[in-house]
Give the backbone structure.
Amino acid sequence: MMAIIFCINGEKKNLIRMVMAAGALAMLGTSVYLTLDFLAQREAGATAEFLYCNDPIPWYETLNINYSVGVDGISVAMLLLSTIVVTTGVFASWGLEKLTKEYFLWFLMLSLGVFGFFISIDLFTMFLFYEVALIPMYLLIGLWGTGRKEYSAMKLTLMLMGGSAFLMVGIFGIYYYSSMDGNLTFNILEIAKNHAMPIDKQMIFFPLTFVGFGVLGAMFPFHTWSPDGHASAPTAVSMLHAGVLMKLGGYGCFRIAMYLMPEAADQLAWIFIILTGTSVVYGAFSACVQNDLKYINAYSSVSHCGLVLFALLMMNKTAMTGAILQMVSHGLMTALFFALIGMIYGRTHTRDIREMGGLMKIMPVLGVCYVIAGMASLGLPGLSGFVAEMTVFVGAFEHSDLFHRFFVIAGCTSIVITAVYILRVVGKVLFGPVQDKHHEQLTDACWYEKVAAFGLIIAIAGIGLAPLWLSNMISDGIMNMLK
Amino acid sequence: MDYTILLLAIPFLMFLIIGLLGYKMTPKFSGLLGSAGLAVVTALAYYTAYRYFFTEFGQAADGARETIVMFNYTWLDLSNASRPDLMIQIGMLLDPISVMMLVVITTVSMMVHIYSMGYMHGEEGFQRYYAVLSLFTFAMLGLVVATNIFQMYIFWELVGVSSFLLISFYFTKPSAVRAAKKAFIVTRFADMFFLIGILILSYYTKTFDFLKLTAVDPEAQHATLVFSTMGGKMFMGLSVTSIALLLIFLGGAGKSAMFPFHIWLPDAMEGPTPASALIHAATMVVAGVFLVARLFPVYFFEAPDVLHIIAYIGGFTSLFAAIIACTQTDIKRVLAFSTISQIAYMMVALGVSGFGGHDGLGFTASMWHLFTHAMFKATLFMAAGCIIHAVHSNEMDAMGGLRHYMKKTYYTFGIACFAIAGIFPLSGFFSKDEILVAAFEADKILYFCQTFVAGLTAFYMFRLFFRIFFYNEPKFEHTPHEAPANMWVPLCILSVFTIFSGWFPFSKWISTDLIGYDIHTVWPIAIGSTVVALIGIGTAYVLYYKKNDIPDRIANTCKSFYTWASHRFYIDEVYLFITNKIIFGGICAAIAWFDRHIIDGFMDLLGWTTNTVSEETKEIQSGSVQQYAWVFIMGVITIVTLALYL
């Protein structure tokens, strides 16, 4: 059982960085193996929707709650993303001195929640893992953060908890109204198969669930936790949060809200298309005038994650594949961004772009990595961002409704605005003359930073150059769900 | 699958090798490695061209040229149930224009590679420069051989980024960084229209494939096949097809620096001069022309209205840029505006062209001019590079009388000047003449406009020529000297092309319907344009052969017009105002404020309310039994009263 390996792996490691690194690499290895094996099984003709399913282990029989897990193409992609980000995150926080052990423990707790979430096919278990992933954020930001960390940690946790309150109501609603014969179940597959939820109930619980997850997916206007939270969080936590945790939102919207309540999703899509379409443009415009590197990136995440939900709502195969691709791609490149910002901040002790300049000359390796991250973000072909964005745009434009296509065109403007804010940062921070004489003594990246950055870049370029296998794997999962 | 894949693979590998391992190489080795790689590519490209144009390989049974797809790999699958063909493929399409472009790109790129070894000698970041040159060559080759419009878009973006990286080569110079940003963002803005155009086009035609898009209906001879589904759909007064094609053209206008997207090209001259020669003169900037040429049957049959727009935008841009070129003092900027003007010529030619046989003269002439322009403009830029190398300045005032010091540069620059002015028997004469013939047959206004521009072109080019090589010598800080051999040899090779490429039988090779035809020089038009060019040269001779005060007097007589022209009609300022004041200062700042104060403020308000309410209500839990008892009793009384009376 892959899932159990993940979980045990997570809980045993608590001592030092070496163990942590070894464990993380083992997880990465496992997930790569899982991906290859999954592809091989599909090749061999395994047609079941979810593979590697265990026999449900009941842990609260009265309510029919089971620990049941399994993966399809989409969860495999998300697991691969998570392990890459976790592994590079471990290397990125190698230099952390304060309370190392506790830090890594919470870090693992977070990863455990994330992995558990992606493999669960039981609603309640999924929700449980979701909460497991959220709580450590508070401590990680509150203790190891910088700046207004208590405020940010509190804000982030409360807003996300508010989201999960909606979510819980939504989940219970699904639980109670989804059964045909009084056999209540939390199992996603059974609910989907029964398909018994009356449309008027769907209309109530779909928005609740979608907004609940949408908060985590930084949907306008519930995104404001993101800039403050990211700005205060320590490097690896930002990486994991923006890279993986925000993807829980998109994944949840998709797997719970839209999969289980398709009719309501179809009818209410227009509201959320307006909101997410706004996110895309709004986040990009906001990013143009920020001066803090992390704020810029946080707003850019709002824009990119908006595109994820936007594409999901288009409800066709290509657009949804694009949405998942965008999740993977955004996870990787935003993790790279936050890692690099952390490294730059660790040296210059400022994140204000007005106080930096000419860093390319001083730290060429970090500079080049930053340019690559920026290029991925603005959608340069050959890097992952382009693949995802184009799949989204082409897919979304296939919608036969003029309203939807109009919003796609509006969304297209974001590719220009993204270029504006990315180049603004690159021009100010990396290029030009050196602003601060003290910066001239700074050193370039050290080995563990290089491991983190190069690892992510290889993943980004890998997807960007040869995207076909990933997109096929994902669209395979989508096809199963659209049925 | 055969050797042609190497055309793309070798430059890409060179980019990876020099890019990743360059810091371990000596600069000289990386330069040699890049050039050696490109030499192989050039040889392959020439071999392909030979096979295509001179053997049966490129001949269909009926004598027409064949369109051959060498390979086509699926890169990304965007299909769904209703659109099974929607896939992005990476492949190689050989047809007359792409084969011609292969020759142009590899030739100029090869010369630039060799030339740069001298010009960039001793620069910091030499390896980086060669890595990006390889990347550019890869991207540009990929663009011209694209089998589908999305592949073109992919490489379109890649050439954009290599242009960005080359303009910002001197990245510590703020002006270079600004120019690079401007170039990237302006072209990106245009690319957005390109993308939207592709989306609309693919939505209706259900394909990205060029072969399907441009397939002409053999029966009707008027409509291209896949567009039958689109017929009649109107939106805002134009048919959907026209809108899509107009948007696609706007993408091309961005790359090709057509008005109003021209503002990035003059600033792009901040990059190293050989890079300007390759990217901003000979190859990348003609991508827009190539795009229109690639989709020409679609434009002609489905959106003739857009073709008119293209012709007039081209006509206006060529005039506009030529006027500005007369007033600039930075020699690279003069050349940049001249490039804009000449590319606009090619656009005009496409815009006035018909389809089939001799009617397609404009199309042929456009591609022909593309070829000759690439050769003489690259020569001009490289010669300008030699001059800048010698006097260490871009300004005309630092030059004069250089013919005594730099013989080889003097001759090659002179040949290229005569070519661009369109003097018999140099290449520019032939290609420009065919454009004028095509314009004359289609639209008299454009014909007179373009003839006038030809005169202006001759004037500003010879203004440059006389100012640099004659005129009065300024005080040189040290005596200017001829450039080293690795710089003047490529220059001479290109000027050989400049002289002779007018005699190539282009109409046999390149035509709209792939069938060769004959052209003849139309003497009245040829003589007319030559006379106009000679008048231009004569005026330049009078004004700039020796130092005198006539130019200043003329500038003073039409002072306001001169000021406007020398400030490039303040278009840049308008753009700056829009971006800084309206977009940044207005929209972005407003949104950021709204976000922090209204949306976030609301969230904070929620938190504050919760806090305050709990602060206020915590008094209730005082722990005093009397108070609890009091509340309890009052509660009971209230409930009882309610129960009794309701």
Summary: The first strand of chain A starts at residue 57 and ends at 60. The first helix of chain A runs from residue 2 to 12. Residues 132 and 223 of chain A are 21 Å apart (CA to CA). The radius of gyration of chain A is 21 Å.
